[in-house]
Amino acid sequence: MTIDNPISAEIFNEIVNQRRSIRVYEQNVPFDEEAVKRSLERAVLSANSSNLQLWEFYRVKNPRKKEALAKLCLNQSAARTSRELIAVVIRPDLYKKRSQAVFKAIRPSFSTPLTPKDKRAVTYYNRLIPIVYSYEPTGIWNSIKRVVGFVQGLRKPFPRLLTYTDCRIVCHKSAALAAQTFMLGMKSEGYDTCPMEGFDQVRVRKFLDLPRRAEVSMMIAVGVGKYPEGIYGPRFRIPNEEVIFEI
Q1: Which of 59, 68, 111, 161 is most exposed by smallest CB count within 10 Å?
Q2: Strand, helix or coil at 217?
Q3: How far apart are CA 170 and CA 161, in angstroms?
Q4: Is there a contact between 202 and 115 (Cβ–Cβ < 8 Å)?
Q5: Residue 24 · residue 198 · CB < 8 Å
Q6: Are 24 and 226 in contact (CB under 8 A)?
Q7: Three-class SS of residue 216?
Q8: What is the pLDDT of residues 154-194, one digit of tens each?
């Protein structure tokens, strides 16, 4: 099956090229809050590791709370002038709940008796995911998993991302995919965004009342971009031939 839809490709290309990180936003222009809701709903459809969806999205809309949060984002102009702030949060601590939800959703599609593919899914969600994502503060379990990965890797290709730190990194990757979907969704609605890593992680976690093992992956400013003030410089990208390779 081939897909030939040049119109969709042209529209998507235009959205990608128009998206810029805008750092100053208009204050007295109409703003459709439903566009944020729609874009967040698109974001949750993003690809993510093992479909565990170990993410959460916090919309900070209240002007007083947004002002307080902007100060925790080092008072950056993007945060300070935005209409809303979105906190993209990872939740590796929810792996049990989310893996059980995924398994419950796919279980009705299994055959009777179970096929080899079905058995792999059972093992993956009921045994492997708990082993990989489990957390204990001493670090002993991480060391054991690291040794297992090394020994197994001597015999055959084997995944090496087995420690809790590795799982956190995987969660941040998935969150970043969702964040990009959100930002492109907002651009398709005619609005602008700016992802920010400059914030006080400890204070933002406390502000959002997050549990101990939750982490804020990034903050995203949202609004109607102010042009040209909101663009701090011309777009620059390393030449394609330096970053895109064929093997």
Answers
A1: 111
A2: strand
A3: 9
A4: no
A5: no
A6: yes
A7: strand
A8: 888 877 778 899 999 999 999 999 999 999 999 999 999 99
Q: What local confidence, expressed as pLDDT, does residue 148 receive?
A: 82
In angstroms, the CA 189 to CA 36 distance is 9
> In the CATH hierarchy, which fold is given to the domain comprising 21-91+170-233?
NADH Oxidase (3.40.109)
Look up tokens 């100053």; give the residue. 24
Position 76 pLDDT exceeds 90: yes
Q: What is the reported pLDDT for 44?
A: 98
Global model pTM greater than 0.90: yes
Residue 56: count other Cβ atoms within 10 Å of its Cβ: 17
- Residue reference for tokens 């008072």: 75
Where along the chain do its domains lie?
A: 21-91+170-233, 95-165
Give the single-character DSSP code of 93.
Answer: G
Picking from 181, 158, 143, the residue whose alpha carbon sits closest to that of residue 48 is 181
Q: Which amino acid is at 113?
A: P
Instruction: Report which DSSP code applies to 28.
Output: S
Residue 58, H or E segment: strand 55-60
Report d(CA 168, CA 70) in Å as an integer: 25
> What whole-number distance in Å separates Cα of residue 189 and Cα of residue 141?
46
